[in-house]
Amino acid sequence: MSQSGRDAGEASTSTAHLHVENANRSVWLLKVPNFVAKKWRAECERASKADTEECVELGKVRIAHSSAQAPGISLDLAASGLHNLPQAFDLREQTDNFTPTLVFADLQGRLSAEGRVKRKFDLVMKSSGDLDVLDPAYRQINRDRSAKAAAKTRTMQVLSEAPDTQMRLGAVQRVSFGNKESTRKRFEKGQFERRARMEKDDLENLLFRLFERQSRWNFIQLQKETDQPAVWLKEVLLEVAMLNKRGPNANLWELKKEYRAAGGNHDVHMADA
């Protein structure tokens, strides 16, 4: 290869160094509710705009050792100074289907490997005994989100002219493979309409309200109430509810223990993923 060819090849290829000094460092991965993530993100952006080198304290992890049982791990947000947030959470460790993961960071063009994920946790509301003690700030978050989910966002529009009949018939002909009359009836009944996926937060809110009305549901009932695609509904449902596989409540879904209402209160735990 000529010198000019090598120069052209070098110019067309951009290279960057990967710093691996911390590649073997142990890291914990924490999945937090959406309302906590928003507060943390806003606080980090505020500190970034302030152009200060001080670390932003988002909370303190506390480990309580006990000889009788495994150490209890919790997160305390009281020292962070963030308002309108619950102050105490538990870290619930994930042990199933753990996949080794590397953490990378890109800080001002410096790409580095920051460690290996050794443990994964879910952030859940701190519980006491058999009943969850709901923080007042968390109660208010639940009320606000339930009110938002109940608000009607769809609008109706009155058409001044009837839809084009030829276009409608043409659509029927394109999907017709057998009896045209039966195809037309199925089309008019809406069997070819696809269900629109709700936002995850809105679907979770709707599910919590359904479980407030009735403690157990089968999947067909939930799909009818939510009008959601089966795959999407099951994906969200698995995060907040559990399926009874045996006993008198077999094949019925109910809320996971950590999301059930405390006492007789209708406020429930909600986890954003």
From TrEMBL:
**One Pfam family matching this protein:** TFIIF_beta_N
SUPFAM superfamilies membership: Rap30/74 interaction domains, Winged helix' DNA-binding domain
Q: What is its main location?
A: nucleus
Q: Which domain of life is it from?
A: Eukaryota
Keywords from the UniProt entry: DNA-binding, Nucleus, Transcription, Transcription regulation
Limits of the TFIIF beta subunit N-terminal domain: 24-113
Q: Is NADP among the key words of this record?
A: no
Q: Where is the TFIIF beta subunit HTH domain?
A: 196-260
Compartment annotation: Nucleus
Q: Which family does it belong to?
A: Belongs to the TFIIF beta subunit family.
Which protein are we looking at?
Answer: Transcription initiation factor IIF subunit beta
State the organism of origin: Coccomyxa subellipsoidea
